[in-house]
Amino acid sequence: MKHFISLHDVTHEEFSQLLSLAAKLKREQKQGIEHNILKGKTLGMIFSKSSTRTRVSFEVGMYQLGGHALFLSSNDIQLGRGETIYDTANVMSRFVDGIMIRTFDHQDVLDLAEYGTIPIINGLTDLLHPCQALADLLTVQEHKGRLRGLKLAYIGDGNNVAHSLLYACAKAGMDVSIASPAGYECNPEIVANAKEDAKILGSKVLITNDPAEAIKDADVVYTDTWASMGQEAEKAERAKIFKDYQVNKELFSHSKPDSIFMHCLPAYRGYEVTEDVIDSERSVIFDEAENRLHAQKAVMAMLMVGDNK
Ligand code: CP
Ligand code: NVA
Q1: What is the pLDDT of residues 53-91, one digit of tens each?
Q2: Residue 226 per-residue DSSP state
């Protein structure tokens, strides 16, 4: 594994190694065991979009592994004034040991990886959010004791989070069903890739416009904002289009009685989810947020020191 850009590029074996390493690092952190495996290493973190969880968890994770993280807002670095990805990749490769980037165009992340000489981590693009999906499945594993054979239902926009969940579930042998309104379905190329990936462990991928069909018998119910970063102007229009895709008590009751509720956050209560679901006992959103830290420490350890023990 040279980069962490898409879970489609991670093998089933690497995916399971990442989850085991994340669980181990989490256990050890709780026991007070310190690590210095990234001592002397620096992670550059380029942000062209806002962030709470990604920024804080990468910065804290790097510190906990003995390294250092640099926050680089694209408003402040020359990239934001038109310096090319090619020059940025080459220059950054001379200073830092890895780059985490959150941006709009997925191609920019691929270009950074192609032109630079250091590992690139995708901290969210318009297309994918792999760090989130890795942390999500770590959370499912903790709450359900296993992944293979479970069903995750995602209700809402066929966006970056939905795409990475498709890949993650396929890699873990979980069934995944996604219900989105017509015109807001997942990218067909990603669905096709996920279906290919799912063949290896024999899990199912279902894409539908019917939330009741998707949620039936689900072990995990997931949703995300109806208007992602960059779509703020569409918020009111989307609120109308997505209104039947709200995860409320009624819809949630069609999943398994012991299902858990997940959301990558930030959440908009009263839109994609109601308070009585997201703030209920079956919601695991804060474990999910915490697990960003542990999952990303595993990613950095695998990429930046090749430590997968
Ligand atoms: N879930 C997530 O990536 O959160 P941030 O936008 O706060 O980083
Ligand atoms: N789909 C959301 C995820 C935020 C973490 C967005 O891209 O804004």
Answers
A1: 999 999 999 999 999 999 999 999 999 999 999 999 999
A2: S
Ligand with smallest separation from the Cα of 125: 2
Specify whether 173 is located in the same domain as 81. no
Question: Each residue of 249-284: pLDDT tens digit?
Answer: 999 999 999 999 999 999 999 999 999 999 999 999
Residues linked to residue 176 through DSSP beta bridges, in sequence order: 152, 205
**Cα Rg, the chain, nearest whole Å:** 19
DSSP state of 269: B
Is residue 62 one of the residues assigned to a domain?
yes
Q: Is 129 a residue of the active site?
A: yes
Report how many domains make up the chain. Answer: 2
Note whether 162 and 228 are same-domain residues: yes
Q: Which of 228, 268, 273 gets mutated to test ligand 2 (max ligand atoms within 8 A of its CB)?
A: 228
Structure confidence by residue, pLDDT tens digits, 212-222: 999 999 999 99
Note if 264 is an active site residue. yes
Asked whether residue 63 falls in the same domain as residue 155, the answer is no
Same domain membership, residue 182 and residue 71: no
Nearest ligand by distance to the CA of 228: 2
Residue owning the nearest CA to atom 1 of ligand 2: 228
User: Rounded to the nearest 5°, which phi and psi values hold at 147?
Assistant: -125, -45
Taking CA atoms only, the protein residue closest to ligand 1 atom 7 is 52
Residue 102 Cβ < 6 Å to ligand 1: no
Residue 294 annotated to the active site: no
